[in-house]
């Protein structure tokens, strides 16, 4: 627990202090967020607000992981001390950083061109697929000394579903899909001040709790398994908890500056990074299908976007005034703050349902 607290505290402080530096730097570089003219008119007032702020909380999370890992190696209990980063940490932080790199390239092109056209949709998907494939292979093919891998060959809900074995190749494909879908989901959600940041805090916080709970009931822990038959077959759950907590705390520090009226936007560098990390956490904790509930807001916004696109291309009619969904409510007359708070409530309810199912499964099996 000490390592998780240390990582979260360091992440919050670093993010809180580094973000205003990023504001000054990106303002000086004239890296302002291009605003689409077809969007709500109120967004035009945000023209020139610096973007690419996700760099701040990515940096804060990596620094916090190092601090938390130092604290982790001082603990003699439960065989948790590591001489270096685990494969789980390399996969999760690698997804976080390199998905962010794809977003950074997208943001850079937008800033240079002075419009909202960055990477093409195909180019962005290709970048996400390459990142997902590389870390998917590492997650499936690089095992620890006891044979445990970061990801599983089975599709998981609250744990692996025994009869849904898709093999290693199939699992890599699923891994790429989850990373791509979740990163694009967070990217679509990032349209109002603080919306994606606050929702990500809730989802990452949920995965910090799940990771720590799995650590306390870990199959690799002999002191627990001698007294209990029910345990979680995952790899490095304490590091999962530490990284999730650090990312959540870093987002809280960033939210101080990103809440309405935002002084900086996270940009695609931030949204794609967060989505990639959340997808990686879902796979690493064996909660792939449960992530649909935990990340319910991201799923809702993605599904409504798909509905709008399909409807318009097939019938020429729009189901919503505008997508992503938060813009529909803006055009309906809701204030930005009301939309953000209400969407945070939806995100919180989704997280609560997901955690409730996770814990109820535990109670059902230990009872």
UniProtKB/TrEMBL annotation:
Pfam families listed in its UniProt record: Glycos_transf_4, MraY_sig1
An example molecular function term from Gene Ontology annotations: transferase activity
Cofactor: Mg(2+)
Coiled-coil features, chain-numbered ranges: none
Record localization: Cell membrane; Membrane
Listed transmembrane segments: 54-75, 87-105, 125-143, 163-183, 195-215, 236-257, 263-283, 290-312, 339-359
EC primary class: transferase
CDD domains, alphabetized: GT_MraY (cd06852)
UniProt KW keywords: Cell cycle, Cell division, Cell membrane, Cell shape, Cell wall biogenesis/degradation, Magnesium, Membrane, Metal-binding, Peptidoglycan synthesis, Transferase, Transmembrane, Transmembrane helix
Catalytic reaction annotation: UDP-N-acetyl-alpha-D-muramoyl-L-alanyl-gamma-D-glutamyl-meso-2,6-diaminopimeloyl-D-alanyl-D-alanine + di-trans,octa-cis-undecaprenyl phosphate = di-trans,octa-cis-undecaprenyl diphospho-N-acetyl-alpha-D-muramoyl-L-alanyl-D-glutamyl-meso-2,6-diaminopimeloyl-D-alanyl-D-alanine + UMP
InterPro entries named among the record's database cross-references: Glycosyl_transferase_4, PNAcMuramoyl-5peptid_Trfase, PNAcMuramoyl-5peptid_Trfase_CS
Entry EC no(s): 2.7.8.13
Domain of life: Bacteria
Protein's membrane topology: Multi-pass membrane protein
The protein's annotated pathway: Cell wall biogenesis; peptidoglycan biosynthesis
Main subcellular location: membrane
Similarity comment: family membership: Belongs to the glycosyltransferase 4 family. MraY subfamily.
Role description: Catalyzes the initial step of the lipid cycle reactions in the biosynthesis of the cell wall peptidoglycan: transfers peptidoglycan precursor phospho-MurNAc-pentapeptide from UDP-MurNAc-pentapeptide onto the lipid carrier undecaprenyl phosphate, yielding undecaprenyl-pyrophosphoryl-MurNAc-pentapeptide, known as lipid I.
Protein name in the entry: Phospho-N-acetylmuramoyl-pentapeptide-transferase
Highest classification ranks of the organism: Bacteria, Bacillati, Actinomycetota, Actinomycetes, Micromonosporales
Gene: mraY
């Amino acid at each position: 627990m000490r390592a998780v607290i240390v990582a979260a505290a360091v992440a919050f402080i670093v993010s809180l202090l580094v973000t205003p530096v990023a504001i000054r730097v990106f303002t000086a570089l004239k890296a302002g967020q291009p605003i689409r003219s077809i969007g709500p008119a109120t967004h035009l007032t945000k023209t020139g607000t610096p973007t690419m702020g996700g760099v701040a909380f990515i940096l804060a999370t990596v620094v916090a992981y190092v601090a938390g890992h130092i604290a982790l190696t001082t603990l003699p209990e439960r065989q948790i001390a590591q001489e270096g980063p685990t494969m789980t940490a390399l996969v999760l932080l690698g997804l976080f950083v390199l998905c962010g790199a794809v977003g950074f390239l997208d943001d850079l092109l937008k800033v240079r061109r002075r419009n909202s056209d960055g990477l093409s949709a195909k180019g962005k998907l290709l970048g996400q697929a390459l990142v997902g494939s590389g870390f998917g292979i590492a997650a499936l093919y690089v095992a620890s000394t006891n044979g445990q891998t970061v990801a599983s060959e089975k599709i998981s809900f609250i744990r692996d579903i025994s009869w849904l074995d898709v093999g290693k190749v199939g699992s890599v494909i699923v891994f790429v899909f989850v990373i791509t879908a979740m990163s694009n989901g967070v990217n679509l959600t990032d349209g109002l001040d603080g919306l994606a940041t606050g929702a990500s805090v809730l989802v990452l916080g949920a995965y910090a709790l799940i990771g720590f709970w799995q650590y306390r009931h870990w199959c690799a822990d002999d002191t627990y398994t001698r007294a209990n038959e029910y345990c979680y077959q995952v790899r490095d759950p304490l590091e999962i908890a530490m990284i999730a907590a650090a990312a959540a705390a870093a987002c809280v520090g960033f939210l101080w500056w990103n809440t309405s009226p935002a002084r900086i936007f996270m940009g695609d560098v931030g949204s794609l990074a967060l989505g990639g990390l959340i997808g990686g956490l879902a796979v690493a904790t064996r909660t792939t299908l449960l992530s649909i509930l935990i990340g319910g807001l991201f799923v809702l916004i993605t599904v409504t976007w798909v509905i709008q696109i399909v409807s318009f291309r097939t019938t020429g009619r729009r189901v919503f005034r505008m997508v992503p969904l938060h813009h529909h409510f803006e055009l309906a007359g809701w204030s930005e703050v009301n939309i953000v708070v209400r969407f945070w409530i939806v995100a919180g309810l989704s997280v609560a349902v997901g955690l409730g199912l996770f814990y109820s499964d535990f109670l059902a099996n230990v009872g």
